[in-house]
Write a structure and sequence with these properties.
Elements (H helix, E strand, L loop, with lengths): L32 E7 L2 E4 H24 L6 H11 L1 E7 L4 E4 L2 H6 L6 E8 L9 E7 L9 E7 L2 H17 L10 H22 L1 H7 L2 H27 L3 E4 L6 H28 L1
Parallel strand pairs: 2-8
Antiparallel strand pairs: 1-7, 3-4, 3-5, 5-6, 6-7
Helix pairs in contact: 1-2, 1-4, 5-6, 5-7
Length: 286
Amino acid sequence: MLNLDTLGIVADKEPKSAVPPFPRLSAEQSVRLTRVAKFRAWSGRVERLVRLEHEIESALEKVYDKRVAEMEPFDEAKARADAEELRVHVSVTSAGGRVQRVGPITSILAEMDTREIRTVSMGNSASRTSTLPQISVNISGDPNADTQAVTLTVRGDDRQWVGGVVDLLSGELAKTDPKWSIMRTYPVAILGGLLLSYGAAGIWAYLSQDAARVIAGGWFIFFLLPFIGLMGGLLLVRSVLVRAFPPLEILEAGESSRARRSIAGVTTAVSMLLGVAGVVLGVIAL
């Protein structure tokens, strides 16, 4: 009987597959650039979101057309894979983030109340290891979130393309970053707290001579009042400002911004208080 082992033949063993080499870094590899731009708030009509979606799609479509034109020979499977990674996805969450809708922005907004929107996200989903560029825009409507509610991120190997897309989309987002968005910042909240603390101390000193002597002490003016103003600004004033000036407002036709209504209300209240204070001081002077 023949013995396969004696003939140098190993039975039931398949040849080992080639082990891929470790992917070392090489000077020939392209540098992948990432640029980020942030904005404090987003306030505008639905048409602005539609235009933003269109600009993102147009930028990625140009990349796809260029890759297909340079594909020699043409590879349909690769073209389909590239198209899928460059496809723009739009996601909108509501009900505190518990409900998510995905699809064209016009179709999503047509079936929901824009006041319920919590976040809006647009961009393509290129993998981290892909050489394809990536664009993402994230808008958060959480009033307690960071002061920068809008984040634009662009990644790619082409420095000029990345810079051009960032400039284009930043221009669009700047148009919807309202001037009142500065009211959501911490310095404004702290300044408001300081004004309230010193204002309250001034009224107290005016109404009471004993209080005036206490307030005149250097430790009160230079240490206690600034501390009260700082804590009041961070804990009280900021909580009021972030709700009066929301980070995300999608306005219907003819609808006014909540922030504008807040400014009008505050202006009216301050005017009334100043008027009452003037009358009171006039009566006291008599």
